[in-house]
Amino acid sequence: MSVFSSCLEVGFFKNISDQVPVGVMVIEPCSLQIVYLNKVASLLVDTLRRRFPAVRGSALSGAIFKEAIPRLYELITQFDGISNAVRITFGEDVLDFSLSRVMMESDSSVALLIMWQQVAQQIRAEEELLRLTCYDRLTGLQNRSTFIKELTKALSSPPEPEASAGLFFVDLDGFKLINDSHGYAIGDRVLNVIARRLEIIGREQKGCVGRTGGDEFALFVPHCTQETAEALACHIIRTAQDPIILPDGGSHQIGASVGIALSSHYKISSEALLAQAHMALYDIKTKNKGNHCVFVPRMECEHRHRAELEEMLREVLPQKRNMFVFYQPIVELCSQRVVGYEALIRWYYPKRGWISPNDFIPVAEESGLIQELDRFVLTTACHEAMRWQNGAYVAVNVSATYLGQSALPELVRVTLAETKLHPKRLNIEITETALLRHKAESIRDLRALRDIGVGISLDDFGTGFSSLSHLCSFPFDKIKIDKSFVQESEERNDCVAIIRTVVQLGKALDARTVAEGVETQTHYDLIKADGCSLGQGYFFGKPAPSQTDVVRVQQIMESLQA
Ligand code: C2E
Ligand code: MG
Ligand code: MG
To answer: What is the pLDDT of residues 453-465, one digit of tens each?
Structure first.
């Protein structure tokens, strides 16, 4: 049956067909003669005539495609009446062709209808969408979800039966500091440079690289043994440390820590391999930054232990069940008087006994529970200090994660108002690590605290990231010399020298020095001779519960002995 029943309709069809952004061409299959073409199709024919000399003088037939678009010519000449679709790149254009049968109106014979659409723009849009959803916008590397997909795919098809693969998590050390002190543009530049360096390593190893977090990258290496993995990790760390040239001509250096998980014979799921590499990264980040380590089952035990601690903390925190604040005297060496007490948290969990703050404070920090703990200690300690007759100050430790968020000065103000404790009787202890996290914001919080009138001590001085610049960045009232120096002072002359130097430094900066961990008469004699202002340690008194808690703590102690 004919498609058009009147001349009017034929004209109507041509009109419409000339207006659509689609090429339409009808070819007589035997002679290949072009019997119809719309405007878009004419444009293509004109282009072919311009570009290909052989087409220029030829008749209007399907043969014009022979040289110009051979793939299309092949399909036309081999057309067997079954609809066909093909994507062909022609110069800068990408054309989606469809070939199908059509009945000729005049004699009901079968003709070949070719239609096409320009899809280059659409492809570009699709590619852009793919880039946005699968790749990291800043570095162009695979994003987390794409990397995991690629990893899953790679693990499911080992290159050979005996092959072993390696997954590397690379985390930059001190990246936050760069962002905070130099701004995001420099931070972005650092990430981009590191991404390019890792990309080269990934290519050399025939693996894949992704950015899996802010300053965290992942690298999958299809062939890896423990030995080659460790050598590669050292290479990654060295490469990351190469100076990064900044737009202003200056340069920057950054460290990296690497956690590795090995998959022997590819017999592991991507989830398990990712978890193992993460545990290895956590281990190296917390114990030995700037280095690498390979996952071992011990890390899984520690991870489980931390998860259990977090669960236990969440369970007891609402009521602070069996959580106490103990107080340890701080003695003024010249007068031998107790002038202050450090408030130290203690936690008893029946199935586990007493749990050291060194174990649960880091877990509380990582899980965001620390603020509640610090609030509890601060309010309890301020209430307690109001009961002391000797007017001693109370020193309260504040976690690194609390400082720099503006919440601390307000909490201190409210607590002092509530408990009526004089600001001079409160001392806040912070560590250098706390300063490192968000330096500008932390200093702002410290200034606000000083404006309230509370004292501020730099705790554990000499450990971790000690730097004289920390001492200059804020006028601390007290510098607490870490207990390790006092405790090793009997065997190590360098520890004695450090104590002496810090005391001198304190004098120059108008800060009092507190020697921590004084356990023996010898320690006492040494710190006194060296000119420390204050001392703290078992020699003067162990941390002890308040009058309110003494009975309950006694009961716990007795139950443990029974
Ligand atoms: P820190 O602030 O340096 O506290 C001093 C630590 O040294 C305390 O350990 C104390 O019991 C211990 N110590 C005191 N004298 C001696 C001594 O003569 N010899 C030895 N070997 N140790 C002594 P503790 O209570 O286990 O606390 C460990 C760390 O946990 C503290 O170090 C502090 O950083 C943190 N911490 C303790 N309580 C709190 C708290 O309420 N909040 C926060 N955020 N951290 C706390
Ligand atoms: Mg302290
Ligand atoms: Mg300390």
So the answer is: 999 999 998 876 6
Shared-domain flag, residues 365 and 402: yes
Long-range contacts, stretch 345-353, CB < 8 angstroms, 24+ apart: 345/373, 345/376, 345/377, 346/543, 346/545, 346/553, 347/316, 347/322, 347/323, 348/322, 348/324, 348/556, 349/312, 349/316, 349/322, 350/322, 352/312, 353/560
488 catalytic? Reply is no
For ligand 1, atom 37, name the residue with the nearest CA.
344
Strands (E), 379-454: 393-397, 426-431
The mean predicted confidence, pLDDT, of the chain is 91
Tell whether 268 and 336 lie within a shared domain: no
- Find the range with the poorest average confidence among 9-13, 219-223, 372-376, 400-404: 9-13
Q: Which domain holds residue 380?
A: 317-561
Determine the Cα–Cα distance for residues 19 and 42; give it in Å rounded to an integer: 13
Question: What is the predicted pLDDT for the residue at 493?
Answer: 81
Whether residue 209 is contained in a domain is answered as: yes
Give the ligand with the smallest distance to the CA of 486: 1
Q: Which atom of ligand 1 is nearest to the CA of 328?
A: 14
Among 323, 344, 396, 527, the mutation site with the greatest number of ligand 1 atoms within 8 A of its Cβ is: 344
In a domain, 226, yes or no: yes
Q: How many helices (H) and strands (E) does the chain have?
A: 22, 22
pLDDT at 335 over 70: yes
Residues 214 and 336 in one domain: no
Residue 301 lies in a domain: no
Rounded Cα distance between 99 and 65, Å, is: 14
Domain boundary among 295, 327, 353: 295
55-65: pLDDT as tens digits: 777 778 888 89
**Residue 431 pLDDT > 70, yes or no?**
yes
